Amino acid sequence: MTEVYLNGKFVGDVENPVEFVDHIITERRKGVLSPNINVLYVKENDNIIIEAGKGRLRRPLLVIKEGKPLLTEKHVSQLEKGELTWSDLINQGIIEYLDALEEENVLVAFTEEELTPEHTHMEISPMVQLGLCASLVPFGNHNQSTRLNAGSKNQKQALGLYIANYLVRMDMDVNILQTPQMPIVNTIMHEISEYDKHPSGQNIIVAIMSYKGYNMEDAIILNKGSIERGLGRSTYYRPSIAEELRYSGGLVDQISIPDKEVKGYRSEKDYRLLEGDGIIYPEAFINEGDVLIGKTSPPRFLSSMDEYNLVSNMRRESSVTVKHGERGYVDFVLITENEEGNKLVQVRIRDQRVPEVGDKFTSRHGQKGVVGLIVNHTDMPFSASGIVPDLIFSPHSIPSRMTVAHLLELIGGKVGALSGRFIDGTTFDSETEEDLRAELLKCGFRENGTETMYNGMTGEMFEAKIYMGNMYYMKLKHMVANKIHSRARGPVQLLTRQPTEGRAKEGGLRLGEMEKDTFVAHGASLLLKERFDADRTIVPVCESCGLIAIKDEFKNKHFCPICGDDVEVTNIELAYAFKLILDEFKSLCIYPKLELKGKY
Predict the structure, then answer these.
(1) Which domains does the chain have, with CATH numbers?
(2) Could you write out the DSSP letters of every residue in 338-356?
(3) What is the pLDDT of residues 372-413, one digit of tens each?
(4) Predicted confidence (pLDDT) per residue in 556-584, tens digit
(5) Which residues are known catalytic residues?
């Protein structure tokens, strides 16, 4: 007897497992059973597993009978006329959904040419195995699988028109490409997803060559003339928010220009852009530290009822300012209420971003790289027909990564630009390389995509032929302006007195264990000493008991909490973090005794 399991639970036995499974599948195709059921006979364990639970990943396949698909030309014509729908095909058992379980017992063909009597199912289209972003990669079947993954991941980070009503939205950290274009080399998915309504890249001219070594290790060279004509130009939006919070005792925040009596009042220069209601005006140019929304709050800690009367004089400054490292124009000011009915003010900042050295660009094939050099238009190499590339791509990025589609797209884009049409690069179903080469030859260019080029600085002809064509390139959201970070002096943490962490908090750059090892290896002892005194402090230590002593500022003398006044106390230089751990040891009733020696 064969055991039957439904959703992981044992439900009974059957005598003839193969017939039982076939019967379930037949009844499901007839529509007697739910199409959500999937069944598998495991011969090794002599088990039948039936799954009908939620949350399974299932995909549609065409049913094959005796080496022929059940979907006929008649069905296709009825679908085109609108007489049949997708649901009708499922109800008639022409298409069925399989999960990973039932796929164990089926043989799926990619195309109709591959079909044999053994096949049970066929892919609706070979491209169906790809997700949305991966199916947007042209000629994807010519790429290595890893690069296809990278290419689809990169498209999600590309700047474009993410939504049409971005001007009336307050989204965090948003980028808009100013002149996005539809790619010349398309796939069928560009049409299905209506990609022309939210494009995220630009068609540019790419030459594959080296330029003084500035594009090694995946870096790219950009033409300054192209940037001045608007290549990769984008706008960055970021909102700042302030609300009038309510506190216990009827106290509230107040959005207005703070009075000079307020605790923590900044300088008048910081408030210069605020209008009478304490809110900045649109189109004001702002730099870091400028106040966007003036706000005062009640004091943080009120201990007794008497202090409530003094609140009016004791308010503290809590304005919203431009964050460290940011600048731009005030784009939009919104005054509204939140759920509790409190006043809510949102100010959106706009900053134009022009490509600079260090910005990240990518093609749709996972060939990402940062700008290594921006070259004057006059110094760029040019072709015999006078075409100057917008971007120079390193030839070393191709062989090891095997992104042949990257090269095919260059030829396809060139043909499309010359013939004035879109090129179909749908994965597994694209225009062939031979056809593209033949059409390129008809247009008067070399069929292999190479051209004679001249050195822009000397005018000499390059001995090698340069591979050159049109390509869809995307600017990614990783820009230098959002990531550049350095610090000389700045805020420190309250607990350890070490510099704060992170770019947003004006933090320090940590010198870790491994960085320390490199300085030790170089014997740079004074540099090490300087690097590691971020939290240097001078502490009085009692020489008799070895504990940290106390300095009385009023009497200007030291005493030890254990030994009293008449002991020798010495000032020692140490890290504040070390002093902190000594205090923590004391709280655990551990006696950390410091034994002092003289400097010899």
Answers:
(1) 2-124 (3.90.1070.20), 140-233+357-475 (2.40.270.10), 235-353 (2.40.50.150), 485-531 (3.90.1800.10), 536-587 (3.90.1800.10)
(2) -TTS-EEEEEEEEEEE---
(3) 999 999 999 999 999 999 999 999 999 999 999 999 999 999
(4) 888 898 888 878 899 999 999 999 999 99
(5) 218
